[in-house]
Amino acid sequence: MTARRNRLAPLWRAVLVIAWVTPAAALADDAREWLESMNRALAEKSYEGTFFYERGGVSESLCIHHRIRQGEVAERLCALDGSGREFIRLGDELSYILPDQRTILIERRPRIGGLLPSFPRFDDRTARFYRLEPIQRARSNGRDARLVTLVPLDPYRYGFRVWIDARTRLPLKSELYDRRGQVLERITFASLQVSRDIPDSTFTPGVSTEGFRRIESDRGVRLRTVSDSASIWNLRTALRGFRLTQRARHTLPGAEEPVSHLVLSDGLASVSVFIGARLPPKSAKEIAIERQIGASTAYSTFVHGHHVVVVGEVPVQTAKLIASELSPDEPGKPQSPAEPQRPAEPSSP
């Protein structure tokens, strides 16, 4: 009996090792599947709800209506307090209703994403810059949920946490946090449920817009995408993980020269860079100005005598590094980013 037990011992040790190691990998893959199913639910289901959006110490309550009918998308996002502003999307037309200014701004653009603040995605590209933690069972707003956490692998981006409803696969709460674990932005749903049918009347303004001034976005601003022009700026070296996804020029009302516009993304975070005309700063204080509200950063500086503004949901140091790599040279393919020494990963917040 003892000999038999000794012969079985290696087998039991192997079983225990497999049982110990396999769940972590399986759960990590499962977390990716939960993110994918959440984003499919947000894009393909009709739903309604209310939520609180917190950033920079300010909390705002909003409502969301999202309908899919015969492949057509209708959305309405409205503030339940404050100015009462609303955003209504019908197909490719997006309207901003500003009651306090008695103004409606109308913009026509292809449907990219929804009106809700963005939720994280995870693919092979983002896997190079974020670590997906094993999924955790949790409860949020009284519902059974799964907590998915994305940890940044360097100091150039923020981390994400999202609680996903186990039944509907819709998000219940999400957080954007920095390397110290401090929550910069939080979205908490008071209610969010799938709706079978949402009437057309839902997607009309909640206030009378009679007498409101209507502004068409393409009347005062012209956007011209540029593929090769010596006047368009470029990046000498792209910051690790960020790729140049758009290069264009804006002609703004009252501006003597066009404004160059670059957009960079790592698959989750997006950064816009605006390069204005050549002009000297009015004072030493204007040479470098940084502002941060929640996760949103705005960094203003001067590069080769041109006024530059970098805006995005990234740390200030990321915005500064991007500005430092700007060059007015003729555009070309950015150099492959150098792999910096990976810093210590942040502790779990």
Helix and strand arrangement:
Elements: H1 2-44, E1 47-55, E2 58-69, E3 72-79, E4 86-90, E5 93-98, E6 103-108, E7 130-132, E8 136-140, E9 143-152, E10 159-165, E11 171-177, E12 183-194, E13 213-216, H2 217-220, E14 222-225, E15 234-235, E16 243-251, E17 259-265, E18 270-278, E19 288-293, E20 296-303, E21 306-312, H3 316-324, E22 326-327
Parallel strand pairs: 6-13
Antiparallel strand pairs: 1-2, 1-12, 2-3, 3-4, 4-5, 5-6, 7-9, 8-9, 9-10, 10-11, 11-12, 14-16, 15-22, 16-17, 17-18, 18-21, 19-20, 20-21
Give a short synopsis of this structure:
Helices cover 16% and strands 42% of the residues. It has helices at 2-44, 217-220, 316-324, and strands spanning 47-55, 58-69, 72-79, 86-90, 93-98, 103-108, 130-132, 136-140, 143-152, 159-165, 171-177, 183-194, 213-216, 222-225, 234-235, 243-251, 259-265, 270-278, 288-293, 296-303, 306-312, 326-327. A hairpin with a 2-residue loop joins β8 (136-140) and β9.
Structure in words:
- Helices cover 16% and strands 42% of the residues.
- It has 3 helices and 22 strands.
- It has 2 domains: 45-215, outer membrane lipoprotein receptor (LolB), chain A, CATH 2.50.20.10; 221-327, Phosphorylase Kinase, domain 1.
- The longest helix has 43 residues, at 2-44.
- It is an alpha+beta fold.
Rounded mean pLDDT is 81
Please tally the helical runs, counting DSSP H or I stretches of 4 or more residues. Answer: 3
The CATH superfamily of the largest domain is known as Lipoprotein localisation LolA/LolB/LppX
User: Looking at CATH, which topology of the largest domain would you report?
Assistant: outer membrane lipoprotein receptor (LolB), chain A
Helix residue percentage: 10-25%
Computed over alpha carbons, the radius of gyration is: 24 Å
Estimate what percentage of residues fall within beta strands. 35-45%
- Principal-axis shape equals globular
Task: State the separation between the terminal residues, measured CA to CA.
Answer: 50 Å
Q: Please report the first level of CATH classification, the CATH class of the largest domain.
A: Mainly Beta
How does the helix and strand content classify structurally? alpha+beta
Topology pattern, helix = H, strand = E = HEEEEEEEEEEEEEHEEEEEEEEHE
Whole-number tally of structural domains: 2
| Secondary-structure arrangement, i.e. CATH architecture of the largest domain | Clam
- Give a short account of the largest sheet: 13 strands, mixed
User: How many β-strand runs?
Assistant: 22
Q: Which stretches are low in confidence, meaning pLDDT under 50 for 5 or more residues running?
A: 10-26, 219-230, 331-349
